[in-house]
Design a protein that fits this description.
disordered C terminus; Beta-Lactamase; single chain; 2 domains
Length: about 270
């Protein structure tokens, strides 16, 4: 990691994965950049408002400036305006959390949600995070619309989500992932039980026009005690219908017509 821009973006991406901040030395060590260079880059990021320091000689944290830029971008693309009414209706019908993720190159990122649960247990993760493809209902729904080779290549590059880090039923091999993908293809949507998070079940369907690759994924998630396999199967046709409705409306958003990104894109700090 030699270029100034590459190093700067690497720092931002690394800090985005550490909400409690990192010390300068930890940033330098993880990115393999000289501490003097990291100090200069962090000083520029602080001056421009993208990073702040908790105290003198303390940890460095991202500010909300990047978040604000992202939200402004999503607002201007029209994604949320198009999707939110549909998400709200599906959330009300299912009584659970409904989310929209968008395909962005080799990433699947959650960008909008609607909460249908009004009482009892709620599952409400932060927006803006990327799905772990191998064990999330959204990831499996995306891969069911791809070829086996394409799906396995995505998982191999991102890595498997292990049961120790995700849900106790997370698939532990590429073969197990492909088995779940094939089940989703046969069903028409993905269905997972405690593969992404312990105590959580989920289902998802791809948003795509006929003959086209997916542009996004709609998912429903809820606690296992309430969102049972029987309940998910009962909602399957409705979920697929809502995904089709969103696909039909997607032409109003310029983002959905510009999905292709470089195939070798990956987080800089992971390079």
């Amino acid at each position: 990691m030699n270029g100034v821009l590459e190093r700067t973006l690497g720092i931002l991406e690394l800090l985005s994965a550490h909400g409690d901040g990192l010390e300068l030395a930890a940033i330098a060590d993880q990115l393999n950049i000289p501490r003097s260079a990291v100090h200069r880059l962090l000083a520029d990021l602080v001056r421009c408002g993208y990073v702040r320091q908790t105290r003198d000689h303390g940890d460095y944290l991202l500010t909300t400036k990047l978040v604000s830029m992202g939200l402004s971008f999503l607002s201007n693309t029209g994604i949320v305006d198009i999707a939110q009414p549909l998400l709200d209706r599906l959330a009300q019908s299912s009584g659970e959390l409904v989310r929209l993720s968008v395909v962005d190159g080799e990433r699947l990122t959650w960008v909008a949600r609607a909460q249908g649960a009004r009482q009892g247990l709620r599952y409400d993760p932060d927006m803006g995070s990327d799905a772990r493809l191998s064990c999330s209902a959204s990831g499996l729904a995306w891969m069911m619309a791809l070829s086996d080779d394409e799906a396995l290549a995505l998982v191999a590059k991102q890595g498997l989500g292990s049961p120790a880090d995700y849900g106790p039923n997370a698939p532990a091999s590429l073969q197990a992932v492909l088995h779940m993908v094939n089940e989703a293809r046969a069903r028409g949507y993905s269905l997972t039980q405690e593969t992404y998070t312990a105590g959580l079940n989920a289902m998802a369907a791809p948003v795509r026009l006929a003959g086209q690759p997916p542009i996004g994924i709609i998912s429903i998630a809820g606690p296992t005690v309430r969102f049972t396999e029987e309940r998910m199967l009962a909602l399957g046709a409705e979920l697929v219908s809502f995904a089709a409705q969103l696909a039909a409306a997607s032409g109003a958003s310029p983002f959905f017509s510009q999905r292709a990104l470089p195939k070798d894109r990956q987080p800089i700090y992971a390079a």
